[in-house]
Amino acid sequence: MQFKKFNGYSFLSDKTRHKMNIFDIDDTIVVTKSAIRVKDNQTGESITLTPQEFNEYESKAHHQLDFSDFQDPEILRAGHIIDWVFNILKETLKKSKAVGIITARDDRDLIFNFLLENGVKINKDFIFAVSDPREFEIKKPIAVRKKEAFKNLIDLGFTDFRFFDDNIENLKLAKELENEVEGIKIKTTLIKQKWIPKH
After folding, report:
1. Rounded distance, CA 37 to CA 89, Å?
2. Which residues pair with 46 in a beta bridge?
3. Does the pTM exceed 0.90?
4. Which of 170, 16, 191 is nearest to 92 (CA)?
5. Which run of H or E residues covers position 114?
6. Residue 97's CB: how many other CB atoms inside 10 A?
7. Average pLDDT, consecutive stretches of 10 residues, N- to C-terminus, the chain (199 residues)
8. DSSP string, 146-191
9. Quick one: 197 exposed, middle or buried, by C-beta within 10 A (0-12, 13-18, 19+)?
């Protein structure tokens, strides 16, 4: 498979040109105090969910969701970086292998700047914020949108992936691409992070 948009990706070596390590952000690279606030417009009650809890949450039509914490750079900066995963990300770049980010957040620039502040610069084209309504249909489940982001990377010519995420459904749907697209390999790693900041 040839790269359709290889210009600007010349840092990739011939050996690693088709390989990419993909990382989620929340509860994979960093654990923050960011929370999703859910207001029930029928009862007036409100609850607060962590990103892990939100993975199991089923939205109702009368629920109003507030994701504003995930747009706050200060909350992200104050988060606890999961060192062993972040070290894999940094080692990937040292090997001239591409790094991608596929996150349920909605702001690519926020993620790019956060990584830059922590000494990591990756190609912004390889960051997919799947809750950005300008690029994804946000009515679809997050796992479906993450799978669509993988398809965009496949269109760029990447064929060999390792995917780090804290949600099993995200990993399962991405893994399906091995059977759907010829020549694709996806190794998945489930991140089980026990440390959660107090709210």
Report:
1. 30
2. 39
3. no
4. 16
5. helix 108-117
6. 20
7. 44 69 96 90 86 76 86 95 96 92 96 97 95 92 95 94 96 96 96 62
8. HHHHHHHHHHTT--EEEEEES-HHHHHHHHTHHHHSTT-EEEEEE-
9. middle
